[in-house]
Each structure stands twice: as structure tokens, then as C-alpha cells.
Amino acid sequence: METWAVASICVLLGLTARWTVSLNSYSGASKAPMFGDYEAQRHWQEVTFNLPVRQWYFNTTDNDLKYWGLDYPPLTAFHSLLCAHIANLINPDWIELHKSRGYESPAHKFFMRATEMSDKLHLPAHNINPFLHFFFQSSALLCILLYPGLILIDNGHFQYNSVSLGLALWGVLGLGCGHDLLGSLAFTLALSYKQMELYHALPFFWYLLGKCGKLGLTGKGLILLVKISLTVLVSFALCWLPFLFDPQQTLQVIHRLFPMARGLFEDKVANVWCSLNILVKIKTLLSVDTQIYLSFGTTLLAVLPSSIKLLMKPTFWQFRLALMNSSLAFFLFSFQVHEKSILLAIWRGLTFRNTLFIFLQFALSVLTMAGLSFMSAALEPPAKLPDLFPVLVSACACVHFLGFLLYFNLVQLTESPRSDKKKIN
Amino acid sequence: MAAPRDGTLSWFLALTLGVSLIKFLLIKAYHSTDFEVHRNWLAITHSLPVSKWYFEETSEWTLDYPPFFAWFEYGLSHIAKYFDEEMLVVQNLTYASPATILFQRLSVIFTDLVFVYAVCFSSCVKYRVCFVTMLSLKAYFVPSFVLAVLLLWNFGLLIVDHIHFQYNGFLFGVFLLSVARHFQGRHLEGAFLFAVLLNLKHIYLYIAPAYGIYLLRSFCLIQDNSDGSLKWRNFSFIRLAALGIIVCSVFALSFGPFLALDQLPQVLSRLFPFKRGLCHAYWAPNFWALYNAADKALSVLGIKLKLLDVAKLPKASMTGGLVQEFQHSVLPSVSPLITLICTLISVSPALFSIWHRPCGARGFLRCCVICALGSFLFGWHVHEKAILMAILPLSILAVESKDDAGVFLILATTGHLSLFPLLFTTPEFPIKILLMLLFTLYSFTSLKRLFRPECCLINTVESVYLSGLIPLEIFCELIYPLTSWQQTFPFIPLLLTSVYCAFGIIYSFFRLYGILLRGPRYTTKRKSH
């Protein structure tokens, strides 16, 4: 069967799975007064449509930042504005300033789900290597398209992660095909959509820098470096344009993007700090500033080996491994991580296959998770430890992720300088 | 018949799990009044004694399936009580708690396992499967794989059973098993299964003539003359008696209790409610849809040309939501008897054909499809869902012969599109489009690949017709609702869909007849890989 038919069928399956999941309820449905992520997205459409740009990120009488204030970079805001214009054509009540808070209706749900579906930017980015075996192609494609984590969070819970992940994937593909400028542009856009993409930023930087270095920093390499820098700077400038005129605006946006006051972590997340907190209450022992420095330092240390290796050997395979390592390191050690950020690491991981280690880990993970899930459902936690099961799950997951971090670092670092094996894509 | 080896069943498992995933995801989708129908039957069979089952009238959705199905609902009701006992109270009309929905949906998904088993049997056992590993390209283009997908992932079955809500999956499973038995030469078992099927859902009477003639000709007549003609001396009365005993005992088991209670007339009147109109509220795309449309068109034309008097025309609308008897305005009215005669005339040539020139089990299956289609086209109060009775068995023939594949593509695409009006809610709109695209894309590409050395399966005219379905759908679902006519003439999209699809289905009917009457030597077989 033609490759395009296989790809189309996989894409259709992915879309069908997504839309059927979106039949269900969304985050915060009917849960006044704050509702959930769905209401946050609707509120951003309300804010961006009705208020001038300079007020979007500021606390004003019309814009209460405590009620789902904008905390993503400008591209998200512009995207919300676009959706708002469409919403306004269909039913202005959906985005009426102040009055539309908590607006819920079947028609509105359909509209929001439709905006979610139309942002499937990553779908065409899954190029199929024509030299790869039919079975691997279709199974790989299905793995990525049917990845439950992304489907549940985007189409169930309600978020727009597909946009930034898609753009980041275009970035990776661009670099893989040798289109460095286009790849950089795509990644810059991804970064301007969600700041979570910073998890992937370092590998992009080191890879491109290393590549320029290999080409010769005095000749072609320098030209490439200049071109890439210009591309990145100009695209950033374009995305952030309205906020660059006033330093206060820029600072406020950055302040919203990186809420340092919220502490090392919130709720239960499967990273090192939350797991460590079970034994040593670092969140209360250390001041916020110390926490920031601690997490900054450990994150840098964690990405250092893979970054150095990538800089010295900027091949595409190294780049992909570094992406994995970087996202895992950031997830495990950085500040204010949300559990959904693991999507970034897993997304990367989906593109790797055929390692026995991963299979064993997977089997172990499934068994552990199954056991824990069963316990969570069947047993009651003791009264003194009401969050016992979520915490155990997080801690278990954290151990797994640490294992993966070690493994992928080993794979990346031990790749001998002369080996140029063709790895399965 | 080669038995399947374990290695080749892993792809089957993957297909089954995949489609089951979709089924589970559809639990929250829209369900029609058929949901309430089955809830009501659960309640009736659980709460009331057998003597009251066919008399109960609290709900408008009275029990109108044969007794075996009633017993099936009775069995289900014993599991239902663990989900939500309130659903088993007859007075709780339109009761649809989350537990009720979950139970009912799960019951369809799990009874579908019968269908899954039947498909596995039909696709893996019936075909000599090429024992290549999963990694080989060849594994995906053997008939068994294609057939398994066409059956398990059939669009019509998915949306009718798992969205609209019905139990067709396991019924088709029983039917497929019966057919498979006939292919294997185990005719008594096949007859038994069909008798059970008839007592589960009497719509399968549509294909009973095919069974009757085939069994008489190919089972009871042991041997033919050397020139293939009948040899009455070889008529086995023993076999006929065996068949008779099997069929009669099944019917006795089913209707016996009601016969004893002297309720047979009541049961039969419930099973065959001829008071309902010629067409369902939404016209099935059959011959009568064209007849009605022509009648309407002529009456409108007649009024415009002042040939008819508006006052003298009957007032009843056949396009309204209620099903009631009505009169045609210009063309002669149609009674149930006329539809029966038309149906018998339409299927007789096929029955004669397998009598005079039996083509084995394959000919029998083709005759089943023709009987199903004939009854669909000319029957009384046909539901559009009945098209599945023709599409599913035709899948088996489609993977074996190029001509059948061509007819299948036309019939399946048209038939499936005619099911679109069943799902009229907004959230389900993308689902039906996506699933339809999925199935249609797969069926076209896989069948083309199966018969690759040959030229195209469908010709230009047929392609144009099928392509016309797209603008039709866009107009009916997207453009028309935005116009002002939606309020005054809401039935126009249904009428257009019905009439357009009717042409495709009637054409498929004649094409199938052509293949049957031309005989096996003209059927282009697929080149074996």
C-alpha cells in the first residue's frame, strides 16, 4: 500500500482517538469559581480580544491576574487573540469582558475542542523515512500519534501543547534535514509559544554552535553562525515586538513566565525535589532564593556532560540524545516544574526504539504502576498520610526518570568519536 | 482448511484491540432512542413474568424482537443489576444514569466478541494464510488481513452499534459463523445457527429464501448428474428430516412458551407491525425512496402546471417525523402485499440461479447478499441500517474476486454515507467524517493492492458518482443548515441523501446479479500471492 495511504490512515486514527477523547469532560468543568485550564484558555481569549496589548500581562481593574492571568509567552497570547476573533464571529457572549467568566455551553465546548484539533501542527511533521521498513514506519507513527499522555492532556484536560511540541518537532526535523535556519526559526516560535520549550533550548544551542565550529569559525562557520543568530533574534523580536518598546513590559512578561515566588515545586510532581521533600523538607528549610540557586546549579550540572559532548561532536544522533537528556534533566532538577512537563521528555523518548534497556524499564514501570494504581484504587491510605499513593507514584516515577537520565547520558557519552553507525530513525 | 498458527494471530489481536479502543472511547458519544429501547427491554424481561413480556406497553418501545433476544436481554439484566438497579424499573422511562450508559455500552462491546471470534474464524481459517512473519510487507496484503479489517473496522457497524446503539455485532457474528460452517460443508450446524439467528432478530428473514434453496439443492440433493442437472433420485429425505428437526426444535424452544400461553398472535403482531408506514421517518435509500420522491416531484409539477387540484391531494406527509400510513398523491399507493411481491420477484432469479446452477458456498453467499439487497430495496418499512446485512457478507466475496471488490466499493461507500443522517449531533460530526474517511481510504487502497495487476476496480462513471457524495454531504450537513429553508423544509437533506444513495445501491444490486448470472467461469479471481 502506498506510503501516503499508510500515513493518512495513521493520522486519521490519531485524529479519531483525539476527537473521541474530547467528547469527555474538560478540566474544571462546572467547578466554580476557578474552573480549570479550559476556562483559562477561554479567559485569555477574552483578555486578548477586549484589552489593549499593554494590559495583557499587567494586573489592572479589567485584568485580574489572580484569575488565570496570562503566563505563557506572547505567541500564546496572539493565538488566543486569533481564536477570539473567530469566537466573536460565532457568539460574542463567549468572550465578553468580565461577563463571560465560567461560560460553559455545548456549542462553546465544540468550538474550543475544534480550535484544539485544528492546531495539530505536529502531524505533518512526522515524516516517514521511505527507506525504513513499512512495519516500523506505521508502528512508529502510530506510537507518536496515539501517545495517550498528549491526547489526554490536550484533548481531555484541555491544553495546547501540540502547538509548541509540533513547532519544536519541526525545529528538530529542520536541523535533521540540514535546514538550520528554518529549524531555528521553528524552534524560536516554539519557545515563544510555551516557555517549557527551554527544556530543549540548550541542545539546539550547543548543536548549532558545534556545527558552526566544525565548519570553521573563521570561514563558513562564522557566516552560518551569523545567519542563525540573525534568524533567531529577528524571529524573537517579531514575536515579542509589542513588549519590547517598554522595559517594564518586557520585565513583567518575564515575571509572569517565571513565577519564582511559587517555590521549588507545587503539588505532586515526579521530580527530584518533590521526592526529596518526603525525607528532607527542603521547601520549608531553605529560602526561595536558595532554592532557586540550588535548582539552577543542579540543573546545569545535570546537563553539563551531554552539552559538552554535543558541542564536541555535533551530529544529529548526538543532538537527539542531548534533547532527551536535557529535557529529563530539566524536568528532574529545575524550578517550578509541572507534571505535564514530562511530556517533553517522553515525546523525545518516543522517537527512540529498539533498545532492550528501554523495554525492560518499560516492563518494570508497567508492573510497578499497575501495582500502585491497584493499591490506589482498592485501598484507603492511612489517615496521617492522605497523599500516600500519589506521592509513592511520583517517587517511583522519579526513580525511573533518574534511571533514564543515567542511561541516555551513558549512551550519548560512550558513543565513540569515530562511530558513524546509521541509527534507526 | 489450514488452521491458523499463533504467529499470524498477533496482527489480528492488534486489530481487535485497536477497534476496541475506539469502541471504549465512544462510550460517551451520543446515543439514540434505541438506547432507551434496550433499557426498557432489560426492565421488562427482568421485572415482569414471561407471560407479560409481549403485552407490556408502559413505554412506547414495546418488545418487537423474537423470544431469543428477549431471553438475551433477560440474561443481561442479571448483570445490569450490579451496575444500577434503577434501570430495571419499567416505569423509569428514559432513565440514563452514567452507570446505565456504561453498562449498556460495555454489553455491546463484550457481545461483539462473538463477532470478533466469527471474523477470526472467517478470515484466518477460511483462507489458507500465508505464514509470513509480521515484519513482511506481504502479511498485510493477504486476503485474511484485509477481510479482518473490512469486517472488524466496518464503519457502519461501528457507528450503528457503538454510537447509535444496537446489538448488530454479535448477531452478525452468529451469521458469519453460520456462513463459515456452510463453507466448511457442515450444513446442519450452519442451519442450526441460522435458525437461532432468526429467533434473535427476524430481519434475517430477508435471507431465509437463500438458505432454504441452497440447503435443499446442495445439501438434500446428494449428487447431481454428470452434466450438473438435478437427479431427484438422490434426494435425501433423511437430510431433509434432519434439517427439519433442527429448525423446528429451535423454533419450538423459542416460541413454545408463547404457544403454550396462547400468545402467538400477539407475539407475531409485535414482530410484524404492518401499521407502520412504507418508509421509516428517514427514508432508507431504496426503491420506495425513489418512488416517493417521484410522487412528490410529480405532485409539485402537477400543481404548478395546474393539472392537479391542491385540495384533492391527501394531506398526510410522508416526510414528517412520525411514521404513519399515507397515500401517494400521483402514483398508485403501495401496500405491504405489493412490497412482498416486488421483493420476491427481485430475488427469484437469484434463487433460480443457485437452484439450477449451484456454485457452492460462494454462490450461496452471493445469493444471500442479493436477497438482503432485494429485500432492502423493495421491503416494507425498511430501516437504513439494514444495508449492513448486504455490505458485511459482501466483504467476504470482495477479497476474492475483482468484480465483487468493485461492487463492494460502490455499495459500501454509498451505504455507509446513507447512514450519516443517523448521527445528526454536532460533536459526533467529526467522528463520523473521520471514521468514514478511515474505512473508505483503507477499503479502496487495500482492495486495489490486492488486485494490483488488474486495472481499476471502478470505472470513470462510478468514480464520478462516488465523488459526488462529497459535495452532497457538504451541502446537506454544512451549507443547507445555514439557509432559511432549514426551518421550512428540514427533510430536504434527508431526501437528497436518500435519493442519491438509492441510485448507487440499486446499481450495485444489478451488478451483483450480473456477476451471479454470468457464472463462476467469468468471475475474475484474485491472483494468489
From TrEMBL, chain A:
It comes from the Eukaryota. It holds the Pfam family Alg6_Alg8. Keywords: Endoplasmic reticulum, Glycosyltransferase, Membrane, Signal, Transferase, Transmembrane, Transmembrane helix. It is a multi-pass membrane protein. InterPro entries: Glyco_trans_ALG6/ALG8 (IPR004856). Pathway: Protein modification; protein glycosylation. Its main location: endoplasmic reticulum. This is Alpha-1,3-glucosyltransferase. The gene is ALG6.
TrEMBL record, chain B:
GO terms for cellular component: endoplasmic reticulum membrane. InterPro entries: Glyco_trans_ALG6/ALG8. Its EC number is 2.4.1.-. The keyword Zinc-finger does not apply. It is found in: Endoplasmic reticulum membrane. One of its GO terms (molecular function) is dolichyl pyrophosphate Glc1Man9GlcNAc2 alpha-1,3-glucosyltransferase activity. It is a multi-pass membrane protein. Pathway: Protein modification; protein glycosylation. The keyword ATP-binding does not apply. Keywords: Endoplasmic reticulum, Glycosyltransferase, Membrane, Transferase, Transmembrane, Transmembrane helix. Coiled coil: none annotated. The chain crosses the membrane at residues 12-31, 102-125, 137-159, 165-183, 190-216, 236-261, 337-357, 363-383, 429-451, 463-482, 494-517. One of its GO terms (biological process) is protein N-linked glycosylation. It holds the Pfam family Alg6_Alg8. Belongs to the ALG6/ALG8 glucosyltransferase family. This is Alpha-1,3-glucosyltransferase. The lineage of its organism: Eukaryota, Metazoa, Chordata, Craniata, Vertebrata. The gene is ALG8.
